[in-house]
Amino acid sequence: MTKFAFVFPGQGSQSRGMMNSYAEFTAVKDTFTEASDVLKQDLWQLVAEGSDADLSATVNTQPVMLTAGVAVYRAWLSQNGPKPAIMAGHSLAEYTALVAAGALKFADALPLVRYRAECMQNAVPEGEGGIAAILGLDDEGVRAACLEGAQGEVLEAVNYNSPGQVVIAGHRSAVQRGIELAKAKGAKRAIMLPMSVPSHCQLLKGAAEQLREYLKNIPMVVPEIPVIQNADVTSFNDAAAIKDALVRQLYMPVRWVETIQAFGKLGVTHNVECAPGKVLAGLNKRIDSNQQALAINDGETLKAVLATLR
């Protein structure tokens, strides 16, 4: 029996023109129009014609990726696509999943993720934070490199993306030490990523407290579809617990490997990446080969996935 989950990608999956192949779906353009009206910014034009620098600016990327994920999910529903049994979102995309699951209104989520982006951007002065990908080293080895490389600064494993792919973040100098230590411990590659915000580490605790205050005024209800949240690898049936998990997510690791494994334990047979790109589908294949990893990354694949899951 088929039981499927939807997963939504976060920052890093954005690219100019990424929505062009969905233009045939009215729901996609309508979603972008709605978002543009809320934020008083033309998001469709930004995605279609914006510069890489504009598209990669955190305050733009977060609302853009939220909108893209919601737009593709609405296109899926407009084609009578069945609702998934469970959902998750990677980092920022936890908000996308909560919107899709009916816990959070899209119109409330847009300014919320922009505020989140501003808090993150302002949390660490430009040039002080760093983030790096460590490839081909086990989790214990990465954590050991962080412990050794911190030297009184912040250095933590922040994204457990797949076996042998872990992201570290913290003070830039500590991240640079962590890269060298990871290589010495046998990492195949260790590279600094072109992002200024050291997401999901203790340097964002101040930003998290600002987010906590903002969230107090955001209406939230119990999701219609369970959403496994990053910080705890748990779905909550309580609005206050969901908000608390969103706050802690800013300074706690994204436990993506455990999230996909949790799907497997719940009997999920297919996981579907919903939005442009195939980053998560690639990770998911490496995490659990018993689940079929699919991606809706253009209009054609939406129809193909629909045919598979109907």
Task: Write structural notes for this entry.
By secondary structure, the protein is α/β, with parallel strands linked by helices. The chain is 48% helix and 15% strand. It has 13 helices and nine strands. The protein has helices at 26-39, 43-49, 52-56, 58-78, 94-100, 106-123, 139-150, 172-184, 205-215, 239-249, 256-265, 279-287, 299-309; strands at residues 4-8, 86-89, 129-135, 155-162, 165-171, 189-192, 227-228, 270-274, 292-296. Strands 7-2-1-8-9 form a five-stranded parallel beta sheet, with helices on both faces. The protein has a four-stranded antiparallel beta sheet with strand order 4-5-3-6. The longest helix has 21 residues, at 58-78. The mean pLDDT is 96.
- Describe the largest sheet: 5 strands, parallel
Placed side by side, the strands forming the largest sheet appear as 7-2-1-8-9
Structural class estimated from helices and strands: alpha/beta
Rounded to the nearest angstrom, the radius of gyration is 19 Å
Helical fraction equals 40-55%
Quick check: average pLDDT? 96
Secondary-structure element order, N to C: EHHHHEHHEHEEHEHEHHEHEH
**Molecular shape:** globular
Count of DSSP strands: 9
Give start-end ranges of low-pLDDT stretches. none
